[in-house]
From TrEMBL:
The keyword Isomerase applies. This is UDP-N-acetylglucosamine 2-epimerase domain-containing protein. Residues 15-297 form the UDP-N-acetylglucosamine 2-epimerase domain. Belongs to the UDP-N-acetylglucosamine 2-epimerase family. It comes from the Bacteria. The keyword Lipoprotein does not apply. Keywords: Isomerase. It comes from Tepidiphilus baoligensis.
């Protein structure tokens, strides 16, 4: 959403930036990366939400707060609540909008895996938000078709706002590092970290990759918590070829990935970002709601160990990839801002 907020601010239009506070410890860095000036209104200001029990208590509480203190979070009821993606924050914002009688616009609408367990619970979250939305900003024709039958206006943004995000990140990176013999790891999805069996399997796969080259494992707080819970954190920490790093800012992560030989991730946004750059990616998932990069530089791994081994070997042998990818000229954030401005002027 950051490129949309940035362009909206540059046009001098008023905005109320409501943050659920789920991942507050990285927000300040993100604001700096994207030059966002708005002062956020936090619905929740406690510790990071990184467990199922905390999430179950947190979600209804923040919805209640947004509705009960609506004047604080939404000064103009004639405005539009704009939500993004498939998180619980997306669902919370959409529900609050409906309860307050406001229009809800969903950015990144129409993405589907057609498998309710992969990704879980994101696939269910998306379906709920589709029903709650008045305006659906769909990143392409495939997403547009997936929104047929829902009672909302569909708008094709051509691609996702990640195009704008990557452009900004590369502009912010003074120097992209040369290709080095390291891989980047980012694992955080519910279905991967809350299954002890699956998490052990992933750790074994990463240990194999570490036997071939150096790894930089960017740890989400929830991932670190589950690794420690399953007594896997020390096992990774003691591996001389695995460097554990805390979750970092957007620009820093893109810069790190641009210098890598490969990336292993379970993130849908990472899939889209890295599809634009051509970096080899092993997607640690059974199914994906996105089409970008599949059968090109993105391998939907389905946890297949043999496919993973082949991916590592091929990635380490690859040469000649450019550090400065040619990105599409389209700006989905501009399309979204123009449409929102038109809605608000009528």
């Amino acid at each position: 959403m950051a490129p949309v907020i940035r362009q909206w601010e540059e046009a001098g239009r008023p905005i109320s930036l409501v943050m659920t506070g789920q991942h507050r410890n990285t927000v300040d860095t993100l604001f700096a990366d994207f030059g966002i000036r708005a002062q956020p209104r936090y619905v929740y200001e406690g510790p990071e939400i990184n467990g199922i029990a905390r999430m179950a208590l947190w979600l209804p509480r923040i919805i209640w707060r947004m509705v009960w203190h609506a004047d604080t979070y939404f000064p103009s009821r004639r405005g539009i609540i704009v939500v993004h993606g498939d998180t619980f924050s997306t669902l919370a914002g959409s529900l609050a909008g409906k309860l307050l009688g406001m229009k809800v616009a969903h950015v990144e609408a129409g993405l589907r895996s057609y498998n309710i367990f992969h990704p879980f619970p994101e696939e269910l979250t998306r379906l709920a938000v589709f029903h709650l939305s008045d305006i659906a900003f769909c990143p392409g024709e495939w997403a547009m078709r997936n929104m047929e039958g829902y009672r909302c206006e569909r708008i094709n943004t051509g691609m996702n706002t990640i195009v704008d995000s990557v452009k900004i990140a590369l502009e912010n990176s003074v120097e992209i590092p040369p290709k080095d013999s390291y891989g980047v790891i980012s694992i955080h999805r519910f279905e991967n970290i809350f299954s002890a069996k699956r998490l052990r399997q992933i750790v074994e796969m990463l240990e194999y990759a570490a036997s071939q080259c150096r790894l930089i494992f960017v740890l989400h707080p929830a991932t670190e918590k589950r690794l420690r819970h399953n007594k896997l954190f020390e096992r990774l920490k003691q591996n001389a070829n695995i460097q554990l790093k805390p979750r970092m800012g957007y620009t820093e992560f893109i810069r790190l990935a641009m210098g890598a030989r490969f990336v292993v991730t379970d993130g849908g946004s990472n899939q889209e970002e890295l599809a634009l750059t051509g970096i080899p990616v092993y997607l640690m998932r059974k199914a994906t709601e996105r089409q970008e990069g599949l059968k090109k530089n993105i391998l939907l791994g389905k946890y297949n160990f043999n496919a993973f081994k082949s991916f590592i070997h091929q990635s380490l042998q690859e040469t000649g990839r450019s550090n400065t990818p040619k990105l599409p000229e389209i700006s989905p954030a501009s399309i979204i801002c123009d449409k929102l401005a038109l809605y608000l002027s009528t």
